[in-house]
């Protein structure tokens, strides 16, 4: 009997697979709080490419002139869904080059059926609200949406503090709890201030907009933009508020997980009209390919992406003073 192919080995692999499934995806799918970026055994990886939703996504991307020779979707222990190298990747190599036709930006929104409504609305909506509105509307469209293959692989729920029950947030250390409450207030204020704008979209829908643009729907869209977008500075449009227009959703590319120990170069290339990620270090075949979201501590990672890293060199301790009695609280 060959090593690794017996009954015991098969049982071990099944257990490891189930363990990975229970933890969920750590790259902004955020079904768990812990993100461990250890290197898995190749035998424990589950190829995602054969799943119907990824087959449809690949067809959709191909129609938009994108095919990836370097990476393949896979599921990894500890990090969940991610991208695995099909071949060895060398330092300086472009590992992914996603055409502008695949990106979802405010330009996409303005060119859509929402454009005329945004252009005439006063005061001008923010770029963030425009992206959230588009996501909610397209998700509601279901099979009629040209973005359905992308929407189908997005998380159904997120584990950001803004999505958690107050009784769970109350268990957080004081500094994190305060930030989580601020985050919830921002989203609630966005929803409240946008109700009239949503009402103006009623001619586009046969159902009442109140049932489509609910708080839960906006929260899902807000989390999607907040956790999965890449930085891409767009030209200023008069139909939007003065807030920076720097978010782009990048289907497939957004499967890349975070590691604080890697370096990549990521930017939109105006010559190729593609969003490119270039490796700053080599990567062996069948390894998970990571990018770095930034030098964030675990509080920032949890607030912005819904996970923490067990091996975070940027980890720090937040100290908040309790003035009465001059006591101090240490929050991790």
TrEMBL record:
It holds the Pfam family SET. Residues 1-24 are annotated as: Disordered. InterPro entries: SET_dom, SET_dom_sf, SETD3_SETD6_MTase, SETD4_SET. Transmembrane segments: none annotated. Residues 1-17 have a biased composition (Basic residues). GO terms for molecular function: protein-lysine N-methyltransferase activity. Residues 69-294 form the SET domain. This is SET domain-containing protein 4 isoform X3. It comes from Hipposideros armiger (Great Himalayan leaf-nosed bat). The lineage of its organism: Eukaryota, Metazoa, Chordata, Craniata, Vertebrata.
């Amino acid at each position: 009997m060959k090593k690794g192919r017996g009954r015991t080995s098969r049982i071990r692999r099944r257990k490891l697979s189930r363990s990975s499934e229970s933890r969920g995806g750590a790259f902004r799918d955020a079904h768990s709080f812990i993100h461990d970026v250890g290197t898995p055994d190749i035998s424990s990886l589950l190829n995602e490419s054969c799943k119907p939703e990824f087959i449809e996504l690949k067809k959709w991307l191909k129609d938009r002139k994108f095919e990836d020779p370097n990476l393949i979707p896979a599921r990894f222990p500890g990090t969940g869904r991610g991208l695995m190298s099909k071949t060895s990747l060398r330092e300086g190599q472009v590992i992914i080059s996603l055409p502008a036709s695949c990106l979802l930006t405010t330009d996409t929104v303005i060119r859509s059926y929402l454009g005329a409504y945004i252009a005439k609305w006063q005061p001008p909506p923010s770029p963030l609200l425009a992206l959230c509105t588009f996501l909610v509307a397209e998700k509601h469209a279901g099979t009629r949406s040209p973005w359905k293959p992308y929407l189908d692989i997005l998380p159904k729920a997120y584990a950001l503090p803004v999505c958690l029950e107050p009784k769970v947030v109350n268990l957080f250390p004081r500094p994190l709890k305060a930030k989580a409450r601020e985050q919830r207030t921002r989203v609630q204020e966005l929803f409240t201030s946008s109700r009239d704008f949503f009402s103006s979209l009623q001619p586009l829908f046969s159902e009442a907009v109140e049932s489509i643009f609910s708080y839960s729907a906006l929260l899902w869209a807000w989390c999607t933009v907040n956790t999965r977008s890449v930085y891409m500075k767009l030209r200023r449009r008069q139909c939007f508020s003065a807030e920076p227009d720097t978010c782009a959703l990048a289907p497939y590319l957004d499967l890349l997980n975070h590691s604080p120990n890697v370096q990549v170069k990521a930017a939109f290339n105006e010559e190729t009209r593609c969003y490119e990620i270039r490796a700053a270090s080599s990567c062996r075949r069948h390894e998970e390919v990571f990018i770095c979201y930034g030098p964030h501590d675990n509080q920032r990672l949890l607030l912005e992406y819904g996970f923490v890293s067990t091996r975070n060199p940027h980890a720090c301790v937040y100290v908040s003073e309790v003035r009465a009695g001059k006591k101090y609280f240490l929050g991790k």
